[in-house]
Amino acid sequence: MVRLRDLPEYERDHLLSKCDPPLGPPVWVAPKRPLEALRMALLTTAGLHYRDAEAFEAADGTFRPIDGEENTAGLVMSHSSVNFDKSGFAEDVNLVFPLDRFRELRDEGVLGSLASVHYSFMGAGLAPTAFEAGAIQVAALLKRDQVDAVFLTPV
Amino acid sequence: MSALSYYLEREGIMTTGISLVRENTASMRPPRALWVSFPLGRPLGKPGDAAFQHEVIAAALGLLGRPRGPVLEDFPRDAPVAAAAEGAACPLSFPKQEGSPTSWAARLRSEHAFLAPWYALSLRRRKGRTLVGVSGEAPEALLEGLATYLDTGKKPEDIRWLKRAVEDLKVWALEAMTAQPGEYDPSAMNRSLWQDTVLGAAILAFYHQFQNSEKAGDRMVARMLAPREAVARENG
Fold first, then answer.
1. Do B211 and B120 lie in a common domain?
2. B86 part of a folded domain
3. Where in the sequence is the domain holding B173, given as residue range(s)?
4. H/E run at residue A42
5. Under 8 Å CB-to-CB from B25, ≥6 apart: which residues?
6. Which 8-state DSSP code applies to residue A69?
7. Is A62 an interface residue toward B (CB < 8 Å)?
C-alpha cells in the first residue's frame, strides 16, 4: 500500500521529492449539469497507447489518443518508471484505464455520454510544468468533442 | 496527474481522479482528487473486480458535486486481497542453474525455454492480450542482444533499445509467471522476478554497469532499468 509510513526510507524519500508546489492560484470549474448529463473523457498518465502507435520516450510530455469505441485490450504501456508492477494491467486494462467501467456507467444512465477520444500521457521523468502545452492541446480537443469533465488516473 | 488536472481545469474542463501518493497531491492541490491506499500501478485497486472498481470510480465522481475546492478525499477501503493470494509466492519454481552452462546467453536461453510454454498458456488465457511487443522485436532476439553485451562485457550505447528490451522481456516473464488462473500478490511476483530469474540477474548486471560508470547520465539510465526495491534487496 502507498502509505509513506509503510515504505522503506529510500522509497519514502523518492516519493517525497515529488511534492511540488501548486502550479498557480486555485482553479475550479463548477458543474453546469448533473452527472447523468455530463459528457466525460478518461485521461491517464500511465503511458498507454496502441501497439502500432509510437511508444513514449523515457521523458516525454506528448500524449496519445485512445479511441472511445475500440477494444481496450489492445492497449500497451511504455511508462518509463520501473518502480511499479505491470502484471495487474496485463491482467485487466480497467485497473489503470477503466473505460469498460465508464461504458457500463453510460449504459446504465449514471453518466450522460463518453468522449469520442480519450488520452494518455506518460507521467515520469519531467517537471509538472512540462505537461502544460500538451494539456492545453488536449483541453481544446476535449472542448471540440463537447466534453464537460475528465476522470484522471495515475499509475 | 495533479499537473494535468490543474491545467485542464484552468482551461475550463472539470476534473476528478485518483491520487496514489497523498503527500504529492496535498502539496500540488489539484481541484479534486480521491486518494487510494492501493499499490503503485493499481489505481483502481484490483484487477478483474468490476464491483470494487465501480466503488472507487463512484467515490471519485462524487467529488464533482462538491461546491468548492480543492478537495482531497481519502477512499475508506484498502484493495481486497484474496486469502490465497496474500503472501503467495510465484507459482512457478525456477530450475536451478548451478552446474549448467555459465554464459549469459545459455542461461537466458534455458530460462526462456522453460517459460515459453507458460507464456503461450498466458496468451490463451488472456485471449491473446499481451503487453509484450513495444520494442518491435521478438523476445528471443532481445535476449540474444542482451546476452551479447553481458558475455562480452560491453556496455550498450543505444539506451532506448536497452530500455525497451528490458521492459518487453520483463512483461514477457511476468505474463508467463502469471499464466495460471488465480490471484497473485504483485510484491511476491516481482520479488521472484528479481531474485529467482536469470533475466532479473541480467538486468541488475546492466544496472550495475551503468550505476558504476563515471559517464554523466549513466546513473539515470541505471535507475530506468531496475527498481529501487530490487537493488536494495540485492544489497541486503
1. yes
2. no
3. 104-234
4. strand A39-44
5. B1, B2, B19, B33, B35, B72
6. S
7. no
Residue B115 within any structural domain of the chain: yes
Q: Do B156 and B149 form a contact (C-beta atoms < 8 A)?
A: yes
- Answer yes or no: is B93 within a domain: no
With 0-12 CB in 10 A as exposed, 13-18 as middle and 19+ as buried, what is B144?
Answer: middle
User: Hey, is the C-beta of A25 within 8 angstroms of any chain B C-beta?
Assistant: no
Q: How many structural domains does chain B have?
A: 2
Instruction: Pick B225's closest partner by Cβ from A82, A87, A138.
Output: A82
- Is A151 within 8 Å of B60 when comparing Cβ atoms? yes
Per-residue model confidence as pLDDT tens digits over A48-72: 999 999 999 988 999 999 999 999 9
Q: What is the pLDDT of residue A15?
A: 84
Contact A18 B21 (CB under 8 A): yes
Looking at residue A99, its amino acid is L
ipTM: 0.95
Does A85 touch chain B if contact means CB atoms closer than 8 Å?
A: yes
pLDDT level of residue B94 (50, 70, 90 thresholds): confident
Domain boundaries, chain A: 34-153
